[in-house]
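Researcher: Good morning. I'm working through a list of sequences from a screen, and I'd like to move beyond sequence-only analysis. For each chain I'm collecting a predicted structure so we can compare shapes side by side. This is the next one on the list. No need for commentary yet; just the structure.
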Amino acid sequence: MSASSPERFHRIALIGRHGGPGAMAPLAALAAFLLARGHAVSVDADTAVLAGVDGTTTLADDALPGAIDLAIVLGGDGTMLSVARRLAPNDVPLIGVNLGRLGFLTDIPVARMEPTLAAMLDGHYTEERRTLLAVTLARIDGTTASAPALNEVVVNRGGLGSMIECAVRIDRRFVYAMRADGVIVATPTGSTAYALSTGGPIIAPEVPAFALVPIAPHALTHRPIAVPDDATIVITVSHGRDAAVHCDGQAHFALTEGDRVIARRAPHTARFLHPESHDYFAMLREKLHWSETAERFAPGDHP
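Model: Good morning. C-alpha cells for this chain:
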C-alpha cells in the first residue's frame, strides 16, 4: 500500500446504500484504505448519516460533481442507477461495490474490494460508456415534466387492473396501437432488467439501440423490437384511467388519456470503470446462471 497521493482520481466520494446498515463496515474500511493511500475522501450527506468516518468530508449532493474525480458506490444496482443519473451530466466516473443481489452495475464483490480497487486506482481498469434516456412527459393540458433514465422508461397500467391502450410512433412514423399492461423502452443497460423479464432481448452495451418491449400485450403478435438509439420514441396513452410512467422505477408520473411520453437518447452518457479483467459475457453467465463455462472447451474450440 502506497502512502503517497496518486494523481489519478485524487478526490474520491463514497456513496453508500441509503438506509442499509450492512454498508457501515465496508464504508469505514474503504474510507480508511483510501485515506492511507493518500486520496482525499468525501461522502454525500446521506452516507454521512449512515456511517460517519473520521478523516472524510461531507458534501451536499449539488456540490459533488465539481468536487470529485471519482465516485465509488457501495450498494446494489438501484443505488448505482440513482448516482449515475445524478453524476452523468458532469462526466464523473463511477465504480460499483456490490452490497445488493445481482450487481450488474456494482460488479466488485465486497470480499475483494480493497485489492481490486488498489489495482484500478493504479490505472488497471477498463472504461465503458452507457447510454441514458431523456424522458419528457407532454401532458394534454400543456404542462410538461422530465426525468432521465439509465435502465428504462415504462408506461403501464395502475392499480385498477385494466389494460391500457397506447399508440407508438418512432421518428413521427406510426408503428402500432395496442392494448397491453404497458410498454417498456429500455437502454442496453436496462435490457437485463425489467425488459428481460417481459421477453425483451439482451443488448450488449456497445450496441447503439433501444429495445421497445410490450408488457403482456392482448395481441401476441406485438413483439419486442430493437430500434436505433438516435430515434425519438413517442408513446401516447389513448385509454387508461390510471396509467403511469416510471423512469428507472425511481421517478413516477401519473398519466391521463392524451398524454404523450417522449423518449430519446440523452446528450450525456454514464461513465463506468471496471476491473481490467471485466468481461461482459462472463458477467452475464454468472448473474443469469448460464450453465456452461468457458473452461469446458478446449482452446482450439474458440475462434
